[in-house]
Amino acid sequence: MTEDKGSIDKNHAGSRREADTSSPTISQSMLRAMIGLSLFAVVTAGLIAVTQLNTAERIQEQIKLARSKALLEIVPLADHNNDLLADSFWLDSAHELGLTEPAEAFVAKQDGVAVALILPVVAPDGYSGPIRLIVGINVNGTIKGVRVIEHKETPGLGDKISIKKSDWVLSFDGKSLINTRENAWRVKKDGGSFDQLTGATITPRAIVRAVHQALLFYQDRRSTLLAQTPLERSEKTRSVEIH
Fold first, then answer.
1. Are 213 and 98 in contact (CB under 8 A)?
2. What is the chain's mean pLDDT, rounded?
């Protein structure tokens, strides 16, 4: 028995319609792929945002710890009971301190009474460039401590200004404008009372000059500096690292 040709054509046409409805077209496949990629992008962006938020919080916490550690090397906990990071204020650019832009200063207090001030200082004439310091000064005008927080001095020579390399920087402790005469604020090579580093004179010379300038600055502005209003916490974003 043979099939009618018309019936065969109808069957073939029906088969093609079934194939068309059961298999996705190229357009449909592309649309589905685009939707999938869009969903993937949204999920990925969300994960990145969450990761960045968590990372930012950890970074801020590390910055806070580093800042606290640096300040506590100059004014240890036994000598104050306030939050140094809370009791801080911006100093406008002050050429006496070598500052060309605003920088943060800190007040150490004992039971609400100021006992020391920590000033940001830059020695602009280091051997390999500017040297950034923090200088702690007791309210009576004596040096509480000095630390280098950034420098590019020569390894093995000028880098001995770092507390990690030598105790040279401790020679400032206890010095003041009263107990150290004007012409003694120099390295010994220049007739002063401060040691120069072996093989390096320019670097210590720059720091001695900068610390002396910090004492003069404090003497001239003592009342104003100690009466500064603390910053809002949201403004405190700079880091301090001891070298």
1. yes
2. 79
